[in-house]
Amino acid sequence: MYGYHDRLAWVDLTHRTVAFHPVGTEDAEAFVGGSNLGAAILARLIDGSTDPLGPDNPVIFMSGPFTGTPVPAGSRHAVIALSPLTGIFCSSISGGTFGRRLRESHLDGIVVTGASETPVCIVVDGDTARIEDAAWLWGQDTFDSDDAIKARFGKKTSAAVIGPAGEILNRMANVVHDGRHTRVAGRGGMGAVMGSKNLKAVIITDAGKTLPEAYDAAGLKAAVTERLPYMKERLQFFRTYGTPGAMDGIHKGGSLPIDNWRGARAPELVKKLTGTTLAETIQVKRAGCNRCPILCGRLVEVKDGPYKTGGVIEGPEYETLGGFGSLQNNDNLESVAHLNEICNRLGVDTISVSGTLAFANECVEKGLLTAKDLDGLEIGFRRPETYAEIVRRMAMRQGAVGALLGDGTRAAVARIGGNASEYAIEVKGLELGMHDPRFSWGQALGYATCNRGGCHMSSVAHLYENHTTLEELGYPEPFPGRQRDGKAKQSAILQDLMRMRDSMVWCNFTQTLNAATLSHFVEWYNLITGRGIDPEGFLAIGTRSFQLERMINNRRGVTAKDDTLPIRLRRRKKQAEDLDFDPPPIDQLLSDYYTFRGWDDEGRLLPATVESNGLRSFA
Q1: Are 461 and 442 in contact (CB under 8 A)?
Q2: Is the peptide bond before 505 cis (omega within 30 degrees of 0)?
Q3: 407 phi and psi angles, rounded to 5 deg
Q4: Buried b vs exposed e over 83-94: b needs ≥16 C-beta within 10 Å?
Q5: Helix 518-529, helix 535-555: angle, nearest 10
Q6: What are 468's strand-pairing partners?
Q7: Distance of alpha carbon 175 from its chain centroid, rounded?
């Protein structure tokens, strides 16, 4: 099996056993790796009644064929489980060093089942794996945990750890890698799943150095080497300013969320939050994932004042700048960096936390909440001085704030009652990323139908409707953003393509601005695996995987009723002097989409769709 070790570690925490089983040619060809292969494994282990925080919900760490290879930005991995935030399928992707270390240890992935009665960690050392006591790590934040792990196992050790938020089963808790050079599997509460198993960390030492054999290693190296200079040139903007550099352009285009998605323009605020401002003020240097030619990360430091950071840390990327910045009407860049550090240390998702905070701010504004409901803390828009304490209490589920807001927006709506749902911006329980669906109807369909909820990465349609093309699939120009005709087909194709990206596992920026095309994607996969598949066959694997995720969700009770947008984004125009975006016609778009996907009116796969995608065994 070229491109694979054909070896998965299955760790049963209940019985304290470790076994090794093959991936198998059938699964490798049908689902490839990463999120897709993780979904297939998950589907076989759970059912409609599985408790996301119970021992029967596995947490799965998966690499893909690109992980650890010369393919640019290919050091990523996926974390897969049922989400405790949404109750449905979730895959969360992370970069950093962990994915490569996993592959170097003669493993394609780790499947963790059961639960330990006491805190433990999994240690992968060379081609062996064992379960160890983790009392020495329990209670520490993610930065201190990473320091302690490196001190014990070696400085080149890589670990996936949870913070205190994951230990107490905060449903927004994430999985953190690389300490202060933070990379996270951020969405859906994967940290809480680890916490429910008393699993503090998965630790991979530097002992392993074995990578899978490629079918044509020389050909792969030559193909990548030929394309790499062009990729660097096309992505120079991200190399210079990182994702914060997109802030100004996204605002000008009309996609930036402002004032809990009510505002349309805030030029003076945005000016203080751009990548240029960050580079000129708090940035120390560039950073990036293992062997990445882009280096879109920014290391920052706030040296004094109320938002002083604990030394040099990973800075906020675009989503966090939008979430703790424009979403709160907060123009204080230092406070955003400080809030990013708090979330990273405690181990919670900045998108879900900031979305819940903006919701709470509006509830205060509308009189649904008072300081008495929030431990006496006066919060609201433009109040960065209060946000740090609110975020800490949310993360640690402390006091009235934690009880009310600590499980995310959807749970908070149920607790507050009244008309609170009108101010909630989430889909299927997952708070939306910082890209407005009124700007991009493809993004609207992506949010409504994404198998993990309100995820901006489902189709990244906002890119393909702005400046990215897919010539190989009949899109030589960016597809119009607010056009119903053809939108369902385009959205489904993009979702299937993203499923393949997350199965490899590959960084999204490699596709941005056509730095690498679908043809390169397929060529490199074939050089690694020797399969000889064409773009259509390649995309068909993505279709199969997307449909399988939907089957998992159907089993969990998801139907057409759940495929929608927040009330505000369905009903309210986005307007300014130079901007006039209607709400997307989501019902009509969904009708077209269901037909294209082969779903019935309730959003379930038709029998013919199950058969044509080779999914009968999962039905």
Answers
A1: yes
A2: yes
A3: -115, 20
A4: bbbbbbbbbbbb
A5: 90
A6: none
A7: 11
